[in-house]
Specification:
alpha/beta, Rossmann fold, Alpha-Beta Plaits, 2 domains, two-stranded antiparallel sheet, 8 helices, binds flavin mononucleotide
Length: 264
């Protein structure tokens, strides 16, 4: 799994629990993991966040070496209540090219990385209902796997996409286009309030890409930062903030609750 703000981790854990799997967790959040070779007797669960309608690129880079041998895999993408677009198909192709067989796939909602108290987006997701759904799906996966004589791939393109109102989608797309036109080359970065910061170093430890200077927490490397907001959400004194023009429009346009969608 790759899960900077922990929502993909929660979903994957609940699904694996429902499936009654003795799990060995491989975490790609803080570096490239080893031991990514799996035989056909394993059942692999893979959960990743959606960034810009695709799988978070760092997740794929770090799992580049994963190898299966006709190994069944359960795919989960976790998105911030806007849309997961082509992420699941992209993930299915990625794992299929490496010898895995997607036997189940799901798209779940997690609190949006950009969500703040002023611009809430899917706050608290996955919530109790999502986790119950995830466990129930995990149980169904177990039943399916136990009854299988031959491992066959599901077609993830059959998974339903969430309904967004056409007006919301149009507003959002127009906004994205305006941002592209207005782009001046300066990308916003998370910043630290020097007055509030207690120099505890938690942000440095939480950053998946080592973008925060260990000797100077006020400095974030623009090249390394993936805007995952792990530092923002994990700062115990709320000294880290990320101001993005996308947060208000996401909060306005995608405030209607979306439910998980799954395929078996
Ligand atoms: C750079 C970036 C891009 C994102 N793009 C999308 C998106 O296209 N659609 C969406 O619904 N959520 C999007 N999100 C929200 C995340 O998918 C969501 O918050 C997810 O739950 C984060 O997973 P994690 O907690 O495992 O890190 C994006 C978040 C970030 C940081």
């Amino acid at each position: 799994m790759f899960s900077p703000t922990g929502t993909s981790r929660k979903v994957a854990t609940a699904v694996a629990e429902g499936c009654r799997c003795a799990s060995h967790v491989v975490d790609a959040t803080y570096g490239t993991p080893t031991g990514l070779t799996f035989g056909r007797e394993s059942l692999v669960f893979m959960a990743v966040p959606v960034y810009g309608g695709k799988v978070a690129p760092t997740a794929l880079q770090r799992c580049e070496q994963m190898t299966g041998d006709g190994t069944p895999i359960v795919l989960m993408v976790v998105y911030g209540n806007r849309a997961y677009e082509g992420a699941l198909e992209q993930l299915a192709q990625f794992v299929s090219e490496r010898g895995f067989v997607p036997v189940a796939a799901g798209a779940f909602v997690g609190e949006h990385s950009y969500s703040t108290s002023a611009t809430p987006i899917a706050v608290g997701r996955p919530d109790a209902q999502d986790l119950t759904d995830a466990r129930t799906w995990g149980k169904a996966i177990r039943e399916k796997i136990d009854g299988l004589s031959k491992v066959e791939a599901v077609d993830v393109s059959h998974l339903k996409h969430p309904d967004n109102s056409p007006i919301s989608m149009l507003r959002f797309m127009q906004f994205v286009m305006q941002q592209r036109v207005a782009k001046d080359g300066v990308k916003p970065l998370p910043v630290t309030d020097a007055e509030l910061c207690r120099r505890c170093g938690k942000c440095v430890r939480l950053c998946p890409t080592g973008a925060i200077d260990v000797h100077d927490y006020l400095h974030t490397d623009a090249e390394r930062c993936i805007k995952c907001c792990a530092c923002v959400k994990g700062c115990p004194v709320k000294a880290r903030t990320f101001t993005t023009p996308y947060a208000p429009i996401l909060s306005e346009c995608f405030d209607k609750r979306k439910s998980p969608v799954t395929l078996l």
